[in-house]
Each structure stands twice: as structure tokens, then as C-alpha cells.
Amino acid sequence: PAAYISQLCLLRPLELGRMNKDCSSCHVLHWIDERQESSSLRNLCCVPCCKRESVQLQFLPDPSEYLKGLLTRTDAQGRYFKDNLRQYNTTFAFTSLSCDTVS
């Protein structure tokens, strides 16, 4: 419309900084602003991430030899796989999701 004035130029990207602070309980990386107010910068604690170690994730099994090969190969097939890895990850992200509920 003739009276429309775009506000798009006023938008600024949200800069969260680096995700480089690890939780002292579970060692997961966080942004500094995710820490609990009571925790110090030196002894960072982000309770929602691990609830002070009450949440425990199982280690992932080693990938198959074929998949390891694709990740380490330097030939055309290995390069193609690594170049398209994000697309593969997106495709298979929720195809094998499972969890065990512990009360």
C-alpha cells in the first residue's frame, strides 16, 4: 500500500555471544546468561540442563564401520557424505527417538 512503511530495517540480529561456558555439574556448554543467578562465573551452574546430575544420558554406541569409513575417507564418496551431512542429520533427526522414564 502507499502508506506502508517497512520496519524491517529497524530489526537487529540477536547476538547471544559464544556458547562457551560449561556447567560445573554436567559439563554441557551454555551461554553465560543461562546460568543461575546464585552461581559464579568460575563455578557455573545451569540447573535446568541437568538438575544437578539427576538427569543422566546414556552414551551413544559407536557408529558402524561403514559410517566411520564415510567420516574418515578423503575420496569423492567421503567428501560427498561430509558435504551433505547436515541434510542427512535433518532427515534422520527424529526417526529413532526413544527414552526411558524413571520415577
UniProtKB/TrEMBL annotation:
Superkingdom per UniProt: Eukaryota
Protein name: Uncharacterized protein
Organism: Rhizopus microsporus
